[in-house]
Amino acid sequence: MPHPFRFGVQIQSLPIDSWRDDVRQLEAMGFDSVFVPDHFGNQWDPTTSIAAIAGATEKLNVGSLVYDVDYRHPVVFAKAAATLQVMSAGRHIFGIGAGWMETDYVEAGMPYDRPGIRISRLEEALKIITSMWENEKTTFDGDYYSTKEIAQATDLQGQPRPPILIGGGGPRVLRLAGRYADIVGINPKLVEGKVTKDTPGDNAPERILEKIGWVREGAEAAGRNPDDIEFNSLSFVTAIMDDPSRLRAGIAANSGMSVEQVADCPLFLTGSAQEIRERLEKRREETGISFLVIQGGDNAVLEKFAKEIVGPLAG
Predict the structure, then answer these.
(1) What does the pLDDT look like over 276-300, one tens digit per residue?
(2) Is 1 a member of any domain?
(3) What whole-number distance in Å separates Cα of residue 68 and Cα of residue 51?
(4) pLDDT tens-digit profile of 51-90?
(5) What's the CA gap between 63 and 94, in Å, rounded?
(6) Cα dihedral across residues 57, 154, 11, 213: positive or negative
(7) Count of domains forming the chain
(8) What DSSP assignment string belongs to 8-32?
(9) Taking a C-beta distance cutoff of 8 angstroms, is the pair 232, 165 a contact?
(10) How far apart are CA 114 and CA 172, in angstroms?
(11) What value does the mean pLDDT take over residues 85-99?
């Protein structure tokens, strides 16, 4: 049985004089969730902003897409996420990953370790975080972190622990996601620490199936049912139009993908509303991807998407 469709919006910031109305409008449109990425530079801090958004709305889920494990200690992550879960009445999605954007590390003066080290650090952090949600005391002694009888993050007061969303693009991090995550974001690999011309091609349709397979392998190895995992994708171009041929050709020319690959790539939602709906339904059937997140910032695009995609598929 496939997971039901749900749709979210990613924002980096909102106008200071209208942000409350803006997020309430997203809620009224039928979007399930709002996410904030975790990067330095001129964007909002995810923890602060999603807490405020939760307080301004009633049903909207709020989350990070995704926290970089290296920017905060896992004890801090555990306490912040548990507090958000309680104060939002169970509406927090805890997204976390191994980090990838090298410029963030350079600008902040942080060491940028190779991917394998960052992924190992992510797994240790997850062990501490989940233990602090579930146990009165947590003692952990790893290669990167250690805790000694640290108290439970906070009393969840009857709420379930926050669902964990892990995003990634390579086999090791996606197998780890299969072991730990409730939601897995299927992303391109970013081993160079930046987006390049070749990045989108790593999420071409045939690559998606391979990545889903890595997640399922990780889940099965951990004794989990892979069908319980909800699969997520993040789109960077959303264009509902009758004739997307020129747009798709332009994207193809700049990404090394074929036009048909662009048309069926989760990174790009282009075409008529009917075509997009049909492709999303087919993709869910073939891959399990059911949780779609699009970019915020253009209210006209969001309203049209909500009316023609969200309503029919998730309403």
Answers:
(1) 999 999 999 999 999 999 999 999 9
(2) no
(3) 18
(4) 999 999 999 999 999 999 999 999 999 999 999 999 999 9
(5) 6
(6) negative
(7) 1
(8) EEE-S---TTTHHHHHHHHHHHT--
(9) yes
(10) 13
(11) 98
